[in-house]
Amino acid sequence: MAIKMIAVDLDGTLLTSGNNISPETQRTLQVASSQGIKVVLASGRPLSGVLPFDEQLGLSGDDQYAVVFNGAVVQNLAGKVLMSQEMDYRDFNTMLRLQRLAHVNLHFETTECFWTLDHDLSVQMQINAAFTDNEIRVRNREEIPKNFTFNKVGFTCNRGSDQIEKLWNSIPDWAFQSYDIVHSLDTCIELNAIGASKGNAVMDLAERLKLSQNEVMVFGDQGNDLSMFENSEFKKVAMGNAISDIKDRADYITDDNDHNGIAKALKKFVL
Questions:
Q1: CA 20 to 30 Å from 180, out of 86, 153, 173, 262?
Q2: What is the DSSP string of the chain?
Q3: Within this chain, do residues 154 and 203 fall inside the same structural domain, yes or no?
Q4: What pLDDT, on the 0 to 100 scale, is given for residue 128?
């Protein structure tokens, strides 16, 4: 069956190691879009961190879409929220308990900004905020209202520290049963409400667009893409730089993100 939607991870997949879209990949995705194929960026970033790359691809408006916050939110590119899975004040307190398992920073992501109780910010947290054009609001615990909600959590540490690995190995089983948790970088662990994943969000969007799942192609490279690669109906393409868990579940392994892997796969299977 013909591919009608392409879901593309951002970092390590669409973007080169220089944090840009290669000219060949840009041209190829624009050709796909011109043929009526929906090109959907699927990222752990909020919409503000995705829009500049959508604009580079010529995508905008209320009939183009993005999967953000690792699948906790689906929005059109005009900003309208189509689907949102949130965590609440009880989850906020749970995150503070998990933070005590290691010396890591903790921040809470919403569609407005990042919130944190940490006054000594890790470089990784500051990078995450800068890449997504987001403000970091530092507050004391008593300033957080009881009706506080958020879409995603990030635990971060500075490069060279072993504390994220320590936290990952210390997270209790009940937490993995209660939340979707991914070890996305050496310096970062990301956490969402249970069921909030890129794979589920892409399925939700396909259903809204009246597409069958076997009309969807996905591209990814890291742990937060794994849910897309666990769907047996999607056409799954792993980047050459992907982790082994992604490659093991892929239908095809293309070239890496620095050598036009997306463009090569689309020319082989879609265009």
A1: 262
A2: ----EEEEEIIIIIS-TTSS--HHHHHHHHHHHHTT-EEEEE-SS-HHHHHHHHHHTT--STT-EEEEGGGTEEEETTS-EEEE--B-HHHHHHHHHHHTTTT-EEEEE-SS-EEES-SS--HHHHHHHHHTT--EEE--GGGS-TT--BSEEEEE--TT-SHHHHHHHH--HHHHHHEEEEEEETTEEEEEETT--HHHHHHHHHHHTT--GGGEEEEE-SGGGHHHHT-SSSEEEE-TT--HHHHHH-SEE---TTTTHHHHHHHHHT-
A3: no
A4: 75
Q: Are 119 and 148 contained in the same domain?
A: yes
pTM (two decimals): 0.88
Question: CA–CA separation, 139 vs 217, rounded Å?
Answer: 41
* Interior angle at CA 141, CA 137 and CA 144, nearest 5: 65
pLDDT tens-digit profile of 97-116? 999 999 999 999 998 889 99
Taking 50 as the pLDDT cut, the residues of the chain under it are none
Q: Do 172 and 212 have their domain in common?
A: no
> Are 171 and 181 contacting, i.e. CB atoms less than 8 angstroms apart?
yes
Amino acid identity of 163? Q
| Per-residue pLDDT, 50 | 94
